[in-house]
Structures are given as C-alpha cells and as structure tokens.
Specification:
Blueprint lengths: L8 H14 L6 E3 L11 E3 L5 E4 L5 E6 L10 E6 L5 E6 L11 H13 L26 H14 L3 H22 L1
Parallel strand pairs: 1-2
Antiparallel strand pairs: 3-4, 4-5, 5-6
Length: 182
C-alpha cells in the first residue's frame, strides 16, 4: 500500500484512533464530583480541585485549597485514593514539603502550589516527574534526583527544549528550598 491509499493525515489519525480505542484497556477518564470504584480501574479527575492526577489502576490524587487558605497560610487539602479503594484526606502547607524526600501526593501539591503562585509555568502533567508512581503513592522518594535524571536524559537525547524545561523546574525547586530554609 502506498501513501496515496490514505486520503489525508486526518483519515490516517482517525483509523489509528479507532484501532487504538478498540484495544481493551482499564484506563477511563471521568470528570465529575463522584468517585468511581477503584475495583473497576480507571482514572478519576475532579473538576473542583486545583489539580488531579490518576493512574490507570484507580489511584488518584486531587489537590484542593482548604477553607482556611490564604496567602499567609497556603494550606492544601490532599485527597488520595489508593488502588485498594482506601481513601486518605490530609491538610498540608506546601511550603513545608522537601522535594528531596517527598511522596507522590506531596510533590504533586508542591508543584501545584508553585504553578498557582506563578513561580513556574510547566504543569506537572506535562512532565514525566510522576511517571512510575503507580502503586507507590506513599513511598518517599528523592524527586530532585529524579528531575536531574530526567533533565540529563533529555540532554543525552539532544532534546534541548526538554532539557531546558527540566532545568527550569529544578531551578524553581532549588530556589524554593533555599527560601523555605530561611
């Protein structure tokens, strides 16, 4: 079959999409206020939160501003649902998070805070920082090292745009840590 067999790129994309969507998968996207049972899998995004993140196994994190949120007290409410259906709700001041020793919900809250404060433009969903967090939402990790590794991976792949984006994130996190320590 030659290239002329397809009428357009759009038709090719539609055919590819139909093929891709015909595969059986547990990943489903929902936007709404209700939780979907994690037993059936799927990603649940909440429209009332500042940000939502989910894994295909039903784990998800949603960040909300707490009722007492203010500039002086930027407290977030973090609602985490684990793959076993367990739900955890906690309140945290994102300024107290150490990205070199944080779990997935903490780094997600910190990143959301930095974006909402205008200190960073790149949403965490446009990066690979949270990749591989499935089943590890409670595990503390060194996200500074993860970001450095992602940055260097982009450099070695000659993707200077990706390198610059991760370098910016690392710089903002470093500045944030310096500010938080004072």
């Amino acid at each position: 079959m030659n290239i002329n067999a397809l009428n357009s790129i759009k038709e090719f994309a539609e055919r590819k999409m139909i093929h891709t969507n015909s595969n059986k998968t547990n990943a489903k996207f929902h936007i709404g206020n209700s939780q979907k049972s994690s037993q059936s899998g799927g990603i649940v995004l909440h429209k009332d939160g500042l940000a939502s993140y989910g894994n295909a196994d039903g784990e998800n994190i949603t960040i909300y501003k707490s009722d007492s949120y203010s500039e002086e007290n930027p407290e977030f409410k973090i609602v985490t649902t684990f793959s076993d259906g367990r739900k955890e709700e906690r309140f945290i001041d994102p300024r107290e998070i150490d990205p070199s020793n944080a779990n997935a919900s903490e780094i997600f809250a910190l990143h959301t805070y930095l974006v909402s404060e205008g200190k960073m433009e790149t949403e965490i969903s446009h990066t690979s920082i949270m990749a591989g967090s499935a089943g590890m939402l409670e595990t503390k990790m060194d996200y500074m090292s993860i970001i450095k590794e992602l940055m260097m991976m982009q450099y070695h792949a000659h993707n200077l745009k990706g390198y610059a984006e991760y370098n910016e994130i690392l710089g903002v996190y470093d500045s944030f840590l310096d500010f938080a320590r004072t």
